[in-house]
Amino acid sequence: MTEAALCVIAESPSRLETAQIFAHNNKLPLLEARNPDCALQLCYGDERIELFDSKLNTGIYVDFVEGALAHRQQYGGGRGQAIAKAIGLKKGNTPSVLDVTAGLARDAYILANLGCKISLVERSPVLYTLIEDGIRRGLEHESSKPVLENFMNLINADACLFMQHMPRDRLPDVIYIDPMYPERKKSALVKKDMQILQHLLGKDDDAASLLDTALNNATQRVVIKRPIHAEAVSDIKPATSISSKKTRYDIYLCHNKSES
C-alpha cells in the first residue's frame, strides 16, 4: 500500500494524539475528516478505529463483542467445527497455537474461545492497530474479557523472522496460516471485507515460504486455510485435509521437539 493510497483520519479530538503517532511512525498523511481522494482511510473515531475503503464506500473493524464473532462464540459448534478438528482439538489435547497471519483475528478468537493459548503475529501496522483496538474495546465487556485477557497475545512482527527467532524450548504445538484468498475470475467477488484487505495488502505471494518456515517451528502440525477448490500453496503434500462447505484446512505434520 503506497503512502498516497492510505491516510489517517483523526475524526475524534480524543483520539488525535494516537492518530498523530500512528501517522508519524508510518509516514502517512493525517487529515481531520474523511476524503474521497484517499483510497483507504484509517479512521480514529470516538467508538473505534475503522479502515474505510472509499471505492467500496464501506469499512472494516475488529469487534469481539457484537456481530458475527459474538454469535459464533455462543452458537459456533464448539470443538466440532472444522477448524477445531484441523488444529487437533480433542479430549485431552488443547494445543498452543501461533497464528502467523492474524488478519482480522476472527479464527484466532474462535480458537481462543475453545481454550487454545494463541499468539497472533501480524506484520501490517494497520491490521495490528485494528486488532489492538478491538482487544481494547473487548476488554471492557465481561463476555469477551476472559478470552482476550487469558488466551490471546498480539505481536506486530514479520511472521517468518518471528518464527525463525523463537526459542526452541517454547515452540508452539500448531502454526496456523490463513493466506489471502486468490482472486476470483469467473465467479462473484469475495466479500467486501476481504476486498478491503486485498486493497490494503496487495497480492499474497509468501504463503509457501511461511509454510517452509512453519514446518521447522511447530511441534505437532501446520494448518493452512484454503478455499475448498483452491490449489495447495506449495509442492509439499499435506498429510490430510479437513473441509467444511466452503473452506479446506490442509494439515502438515511436524516432528520438531521443544528443548527442555
How is this structure best summarized?
The chain has 260 residues and is of the alpha/beta class. It has helices at residues 16-25, 68-75, 82-87, 106-113, 125-138, 145-151, 159-164, 192-201, 207-215, and strands at 6-10, 30-31, 40-44, 49-53, 58-60, 97-99, 118-121, 152-155, 174-177, 221-227, 240-243, 247-253. It is globular.
List the helices and strands and how they pair.
Blueprint lengths: L5 E5 L5 H10 L4 E2 L8 E5 L4 E5 L4 E3 L7 H8 L6 H6 L9 E3 L6 H8 L4 E4 L3 H14 L6 H7 E4 L3 H6 L9 E4 L14 H10 L5 H9 L5 E7 L12 E4 L3 E7 L7
Written description of the protein model:
The chain has 260 residues and is of the alpha/beta class. 30% of the residues lie in helices and 20% in strands. The protein is built from 9 helices and 12 strands. The chain has a 7-stranded mixed beta sheet with strand order 8-7-6-9-10-12-11, sandwiched between helices. Strands 2-1-3-4-5 form a 5-stranded mixed beta sheet, covered by helices on one side. It is globular, with a radius of gyration of 19 Å.
Overall pLDDT score: 89
Rg from Cα: 19 Å
Largest sheet: 7 strands, mixed
The chain-level structural class is alpha/beta
Number of beta strands: 12
Overall, the morphology is: globular
Poorly predicted tracts of residues? none
Instruction: Determine the N-to-C terminus distance.
Output: 42 Å
The percent range for strand residues is 15-25%
The number of helical runs is 9
